[in-house]
Prior knowledge:
The complex is a heterodimer of chains A (about 800) and B (about 350).
Chain A: E1 2-4, H1 5-11, H2 19-29, E2 32-38, E3 44-56, E4 64-69, E5 74-79, E6 89-99, E7 103-104, E8 108-110, E9 113-115, E10 118-119, E11 142-143, H3 153-156, E12 162-167, H4 178-189, E13 202-206, E14 212-215, E15 223-230, H5 239-247, H6 255-267, E16 271-275, H7 276-279, E17 283-288, E18 294-296, E19 302-304, E20 310-313, E21 318-321, E22 325-326, E23 339-345, H8 348-357, H9 363-370, H10 377-391, E24 395-398, E25 401-404, E26 411-416, H11 417-424, H12 430-439, E27 443-447, E28 450-455, H13 465-476, H14 497-511, E29 515-516, E30 522-523, H15 525-528, H16 534-539, E31 556-557, H17 562-573, E32 580-590, E33 601-611, H18 628-642, E34 646-650, E35 656-666, E36 669-677, H19 679-684, E37 690-696, H20 697-703, E38 719-728, H21 733-744, E39 748-757, E40 766-775, H22 784-802, E41 805-806
Parallel strand pairs in A: 13-24, 14-17, 29-32
Antiparallel strand pairs in A: 1-12, 2-12, 3-4, 3-6, 4-5, 6-7, 6-10, 6-11, 8-9, 15-23, 15-24, 15-25, 16-23, 17-20, 18-19, 20-21, 21-22, 26-28, 27-28, 30-31, 32-33, 33-37, 34-35, 35-36, 36-37, 38-40, 38-41, 39-40
Helix pairs in contact in A: 2-4, 5-6, 6-10, 8-9, 21-22
Chain B: H1 2-18, H2 22-33, H3 38-44, H4 53-90, H5 109-123, E1 127-128, E2 134-136, H6 137-140, E3 165-167, H7 172-181, E4 188-197, E5 209-220, H8 224-239, E6 245-252, E7 255-264, E8 281-290, H9 292-297, E9 305-312, H10 314-322, H11 329-332, H12 335-340
Parallel strand pairs in B: 1-4
Antiparallel strand pairs in B: 2-3, 4-5, 5-9, 6-7, 7-8, 8-9
Helix pairs in contact in B: 1-2, 1-4, 2-4, 5-10
Amino acid sequence: MLVSLNWLKDYIDVSDYTPEELAEIITKTGIEVESVEPVAEAAQGVVVGYVKSCEQHPNADKLSLCQVDVGEETLQIVCGAPNIAQGQKVAVATPGAVLPGNFKIKKTKLRGEASNGMICSLQELGVNEKEVPEEYKEGIFVFPDDVEAGEDAISLLNLDDKIIELGLTPNRSDALSMAGVAYEVAAAIDGSYTLAEENVKESEEAASDYISVNVEDEKANPYYGAFVIKDIEVRPAPLWMRNRLTAAGIRPINNVVDITNYVLLEYGQPLHAFDYDRFGTKTIVTRRANDGEVITTLDDQERTLTQDHLVITNGEEAHAIAGVMGGAKSEVQDDTTTLILEAAYFAPSIVRQSSKDHGLRSESSTRFEKGVDPNRVERAGKRACELLQKYANGTVLGDVVSFDELDRSEKQVTIETSLINKRLGTDISHEEIGQILRRLQFTFVQDGEAFHISVPTRRGDIERFEDMLEEVARIYGYDNLPFTLPAGANQAGGLSLNQQLKRKMKTYFEGAGLNETITYSLTKEPWAKMLVSPEVQREAASPVGLAMPMSEEHSHLRLSILPELLQSLSYNVARKQNDLAYYEIGTVFISDEEKVRTQPKEVLRASGALTGEWLAHPWQQEKKMVDFFVVKGIVEGLSEQLDISFTYEKSRLPQMHPGRTAIIKAGDKEVGFIGQVHPKLQKEFGLKETYVFDLNAEELMEQYTKEEAFQAIPRYPSVSRDIALVVDEDVAAGAIAETISEAGAPLVKDVRVFDLYQGEHLEDGKKSLAFNLLYLDPMRTLKDQEVEEAHNHILQSVKDQHAAELRS
Amino acid sequence: MKERLEQLKQEALQKVEQAENVQGLKDVRVEYLGKKGPITEVLRGMGKLSKEERPVIGQLANDVREQIAEAIETKQTRLEDEALEKQLEEESIDVTLPGRPVQVGGPHLLTSIVEEIEDLFIGMGFEIKEGPEVETDYYNFEALNLPKGHPARDMQDSFYITEELLLRTHTSPVQARTMGQKDGSEVVKMICPGKVYRRDTDDATHSHQFTQLEGLLVDKDVRMSDLKGVLNAFAKQMFGDDRDIRLRPSFFPFTEPSVEMDISCKVCGGEGCSVCKQTGWIEILGGGMVHPNVLEMAGYDPKEYSGFAFGMGPERIAMLKYGVDDIRNFYTNDARFLKQYHKA
């Protein structure tokens, strides 16, 4: 809502405050002021001048030589505007005047002729180019006849005004009018304001002889008032009115339309004027539209209606979409003489529906949607009649013709001083609360410490105690509330075990060299299905899609974090950031329903993607590119951190490198996978070798057991033995290690691969694997012989199971 | 013999003195102290001496041996020290060369902000709660006093999946769920951070996915001044002791009274500048007293119980605190952006 300060001053005395101070007070008491802007940059010394004569400049084709009466004297001024003419009243910057841009006007000579001032265009007076009416764009501004030479032109043009922009929350639709703003400001500064009574002289002739009103859906349209005004002269509205509309962001059209808009701004009540002669019948019928009914609206758009919309008809055809926009057929035109003026209450829901369905949000629909003041509907009609009488020469016929089932009762709310103070933490006195209610102009009856309040209908947002609590608090001042801390029972705050584990995982990944990322949960459909871990894939029907996505880019919920993570890598690589190690812990959305009806399961997963050099900028050493084992090392580290052992099974997964991918199991549960992204997919993302892992973080949290008992540090020494085994190259090191562990139990506590060799001195198709074995008995020192026996048993077992030979 | 021993001693000490390396010393030791050395020889000849002389000479011979051995020992230590010194000198390096890099990652800026706020509220006795990102219309709207057709639903156009399911538009449903799990008499004291989604076109100030963090306290006799006190503590911790807060009336369907909180502008200290649009204040969060309808729907009697709630956007806080000027930075994961904030 744009509020003209000059207009506001008509209603309430704010002279004690600068515009900025006033803005601050309004903001603090309830409505946020978003800006305070002058209409135009300040100009001084500009007055109305009467062009007594206007002749061709003797020495210049395009200049005119004018004698201009500026009140106290007549000045000779040279003017270059094409539209200058004798008899006009124009804006004259007299010598000594200062125009926007600090442009000082001096007496001068132009082509040999004295020029003692300047006749100004609106642009020269600081009006924004786009707000200059078409007819004055190329020349000077011409005042209407009713102004006097010598008057202050800046003030007449309202260029000394300031505009306060209010950011209204949906509950404060009462401030969608100048009257509402005036009530609010009066409460805020403890001033006084009441909406003045309308003053209409009605003719003897009765409106009911011209029109009847028939309402079919009284819930959607509980009040419809029709005023009839004859003898209308359509012409431009007075300058001050046009200025005020412009200040509020409404384009002036003609006096009739401008007056309805002016009252809309003043009272917050939208009105509509129909041309009586073009309306066609003497009957107004408001009803639900028929499905498929068509109307051409004022903007010359043909609109198809349904039963969800309310229309104003002449009994035969629709002439307006109620509360949204009038029809083209009965539009007020220059030759209009008789008006039907509509002042109605349309239910918020039906106007919202029409406005939404037709994509039409107007000053009118915005107000109806939020509910107008039932006690101001008819008054607004009267106010428009008053103005039409004054500024359009109208004759108002006797009595409004109306249908009226409108509830105008005031809501009753009771508040008690003690409860107010209990809820606010304050100590406001009974008297002070009474004073606040008086400032708000709410009538009330006192009963002990209770106030029984009748809430004015303009404040439709106030229904119960808590609403009044806010009213009292905001006028009392939020600034005046004390700072306290909650006094109730204290609980120990903290993180749940899973929250702690999530932080632990993050800390681990970051310590292991990965950067945390956050990517979008909504992705494109192909990506939502891509790089999905097999155990997720088995559970999910298909990715969950949005009913109405905004774009293909973000249409489906992810089943895997990896595609968007690859996208992040891709984004960086395209910007020459080639060495990347990223991880994300986030939710994926799994639904087993082909057509989703219930909430999908949301599972926390920990995923990583790495590419480029593992150690960026090494020196004196070989470059280390990220490979499978770098990533596996990170995953193994996590398994160690959580004390959950993982096993890795080589697998072929879609979009993954067939020879460098493994499923990860924790116990007998699949928890994810690891491997190299398929080179074809790498290429699609513009990536070189890229490795990923994807783990079910929630399952890991499930399997995590907090260490409870202290495990004694072994007091006896362990024995370390190395063995190198020659096996066929397709035998998995993990399988041999497992055999060693089993055969060596219980003495073998740890088996580690420390070398892999293929090539010279070995047969083709063979490889050598070196293991380090740790023997330990926590209860005693091992004897050489025992170790020897266990070792021999191990060698025999690997020979039996894997045809492994001890490397000589 | 006395003279002979004295002479040997002088000779030996001189040779020790002259020895240039450990081998030289070893030679001296073998030459004078070895089994075939002159001192041993002297001792062997003691049989010829008188009973009186024998202990005297014996003592003297031992003294001489000891003095020579000590001299060798001292010299040896010195030589070893010198050798080590020399070796270390040769091992000298250029300490200004770079260290071997250790690969270290770090948290995302939003995580840092969220965890900082979490820790702050944990300190005040709040729990951290989480909830689903795909919500039912009931929890996302209705339980929060936003029945179907409510105009405030316009304020947050949503991503619907079905008529009844949508991506949550705020983290408030977690509040409704948490309250619903209690039996209408237990205290609720929680914050809930999480991802939320709105139908916005991504640009410098809008993101279809962003983070929200909300807090809720429901108890007997919670006061609006408590909200002010808690938010003040939050603002001072998060933005510094020198920042003031101010509450302004506002509107949210799930709170009444509703507030918006501003903090004094850091750039101008409240004087007014372009950052705070000349107001001296910067909007930081919204909140208010829990709406009685919301309490009722969750099974709390609003006559007996009251509460406050607040919600903020970690992106906005990060943008204000660190001057990040484009919200998309949080989601494109540019390595240069991520690494800037590892210390945050």
